[in-house]
Amino acid sequence: MTRHHRRGMAPLEFVIVFPLLLALTAALFLIARADLAKSLTATTARHDAWAGRATVPAGSPLALNPDPAQSLSARTATRPVPGGPLFKGEFTAESRAAVYAHPWDWRGVPFDGGRSAFEFHDHEFSLLIGQIPELRQLAAFLGGGMQLIGFIMDPTRNPVLSVFRVIGPVLNAVVVVAGMILEYGTAPLLSVLNGLLKPIIWATEAILLPWRAVPGFLRPRWVRRLFNFLNWLYSVEDMLNVGTWACHNLYAASQGRKGNWQGNILVRFMNFRPNP
User: Fold this and answer.
1) I want to staple 247 with a disulfide (CB 3.0 to 4.6 A). Which of 46, 187, 239, 258 is the partner?
2) What whole-number distance in Å separates Cα of residue 95 and Cα of residue 115?
3) Closest CA to 209 of 201, 218, 199
């Protein structure tokens, strides 16, 4: 088999392909410049939008249906991208960024600081009440009522509360002394009385023990009276226990501690029988 060798024409092929290679290389450089310009414009737009938050209006942050777009800080950044020797003209890279400048927080709500804790904020109240047409006519009446409540609750302006503010430390000392009297005076006395009452209860129980199996209508009159007397003794014993327990808890309260208050204290007081 005979092979025929033919000389290539590389210069001619290069001349034919060179414009395509040149255009491809120029396009790659153009894409790189466009990508860099797009990144720069995006960064600039975001920076300008964030920096411009203080210059946009706050809108209506106290409205019932506020429009956040009223406080929108939007910026647009552009940057030219030259086309190069093969791509005549100029391209433009553009980016947009927006940020809500005044959300509903302590910076957006126009509260007037520097007031006392109970001083009524009439300006903010008028802004709020003005958003409700049904209550707009009552703004002055409601505002006056709130100012009166603020005056009553403010210890720096109400003379009655000012007096209590002065005598409060004295009353605290009185409460501490009263708590100590209850803890170390009244509570031991109630415990002693309770201890003296127990033998009487035991003796009465011993007397009535044989009569517990007898129906009530068959018991003599003195036995029924003695049963009533025993129930009264148990009621007195319970009141002595409640009094001792209350003395301990009131002393704990005078010392600023929580204590151990029980929820059935009212029921136990209501069950007390003052007479046998």
Assistant:
1) 187
2) 45
3) 201
**Nearest alpha carbon to residue 61 among 73, 51, 69:** 69
Instruction: Give pLDDT tens digits for 234-244.
Output: 888 888 888 88
Confidence band for 16, pLDDT divided at 50, 70 and 90: confident
**Which residue matches tokens 């920076």?**
47
Asked whether 92 and 80 are in contact (CB, 8 A), the reply is yes
Dihedral sign, CA of 113, 114, 116, 117?
positive
Q: How many Å apart are CA 243 and CA 276, to the nearest integer? A: 19
Q: Count the neighbouring beta carbons within 10 Å of the beta carbon of residue 118.
A: 16
pLDDT at 202 over 90: yes
pLDDT at 188 over 90: yes
Structure-token pair, residue 221: 């009159």
Q: Give Cα separations from 198 to 171, 203, 226, 230, 236 (angstroms).
A: 38, 9, 16, 11, 11
Rounded to the nearest angstrom, the gap between the alpha carbon of residue 241 and the centroid of all alpha carbons in its chain is 41
Token representation of residue 172: 């605290």
Residue 1 has pLDDT above 60, yes or no: no
Q: Is residue 29's pLDDT more than 90?
A: no
Task: Report which of 70, 55, 64 is spatially closest to residue 103, judged by C-alpha positions.
Answer: 70
The interaxial angle of helices 122-129 and 139-153, nearest 10 deg, is 140
| Token code pair at residue 182 | 């209850």
On whether the CB atoms of residues 157 and 151 are closer than 8 A, the answer is yes
Q: Which residues pair with 73 in a beta bridge?
A: 99
How far apart, in whole angstroms, are the C-alpha atoms of residue 212 and residue 223?
Answer: 10
- Indicate whether this model's pTM tops 0.70: no
